[in-house]
Each structure stands twice: as structure tokens, then as C-alpha cells.
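Assemble and predict.
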Amino acid sequence: MQLHPRELNELTRKAGELLSDTTDVPRLLKMRLGADHALAEAADDMLASIQTLLRELRSFDVSAQEEDDEARA
Amino acid sequence: MRITEADYEYLLHTLSEARSRATEIAVSISARVGTEHPLAKLANAAALKVESVLRDVQKNATDQPTASPKVFDLAGDAPATSPEPAAAEANVKAPLPWASFHVEAGVGPEHWVSQFVDELMREVRTSGAIRFETAERLLERHKQTFEHDLAIARRMYRNYPHLFHEESNEAGASQNGRRMLTARV
């Protein structure tokens, strides 16, 4: 199965919302607990992970995926 | 500076929503391109990290008294006093005498009500007082978690019924899932 452009757009939009919804979490935890606190660091890590996912979704090439499938067939 | 009750409310609400959204994204990607695809792995990693931070915040909220003003003890007019920090820490770590609650209530230890009672009694031991705000906050959190889990399970079943059919073919797998769902209700 493949990701279709419309599905990819929808997933990218949802990942963008996920990122904007969670942006303040590490900031708040750092302010309350300090930047070195394990929870603040875990929240930073979480945000970085969401940013990576969003970046990869934005740069995902749907046409290359189709070419790969054709090559395999 | 400590985390206030309002902060916990914001964090728990935001992270619960984020967990639902991240799980939905991960499931959608995996269903389209397979679980071994790099995108699916990234989405799963993000969902796991959100889940992990949510659990840590929940644990923090239960283990630590918040920065909100103390309320009055149920027993009298004087504000409840906190036990010494060392004693409070020992109390948190000590075995719970009500650990058999779930047996008496006829529910499993993983049932939300068992966990709610455990968390409430730990809070009582730590702060030395029973507070309506604490009980309300804990109960609301369990309710939100349950409703989110149920919504995700329903959405997954509606959108990806084939995954559940595949699972039901594997020995005992579906039984475990159903047991988990009914255990929480």
C-alpha cells in the first residue's frame, strides 16, 4: 500500500497541529523545574521527535514511492 | 519553583490530546506503508515519547504536593500540616496497607478504580490530608485517560477493522485486548 498525496497532506496537517499543541510543554517544564530536570529534558526530546516526523512528512516524495513500487514489480 | 495545579491541568490535558493525535498518526501511517517503513518508525517513536512524558507528568502530579495553597483538614479547623519531607518520602515508598482493595472490590489491580484508590491514599500519606481538590483531580485524570483510550480504540476499529481481524486470528491476542477493555469499564 501507498501514501496518497491527499492522505499525506492530512497527516502532515495533523503532525503540524501536534507540534503547535505541544510546543509550550517543554517551555513550561523548564520554567517550573529548571532546564536540567529529567522531565524537561524528556519533553524537549518529545518535541524534537515530533519536529523530525513533521519534517520527514513534509519532505516525503509520493512520486518516488510510486517509482519504487514499480521498480520492485 | 514548583508546578501548580493549573500547570498540571494544562500539561495533562495537552499531553492526553497529543497522545491521541500521535497514536492516530502512527496507526494511519503504519496501515498505509507498513510498520517497518522509516516514516512509521518515526511516528511510533514520537507517539511513545508523548506517552512517556504524559506518564512522567502523571507520576509527578501524584508523587509531589503542588504549589497551591493548603486547604483545611477534614478533621478540624486548623490547616493540615505536612509531614517532614523524609517521613513523607518514606511513606510514599512504604507498602500500601490497602493493597488488597482490588481483591475486596472484585476488580483487577490494573482497573482504574484500584489505581485511583492507590494514588489517592499515597497523596493522603504524603500531604497528611484528604482534599476534595486532589480526589477530583485524580478522578478527572482517570476519566480523561479512559475516555481517550476508548475513543482511540473505537476509531482504530472503525478505520482499520482488518487489523483487528488479523489479531483475532492470532491465538489469544484478541481475548487479551477485550479483557483489557472490559477490565477498565
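Helices of chain B lie at 5-33, 38-63, 85-93, 101-105, 112-127, 132-159, 161-169, 173-184.
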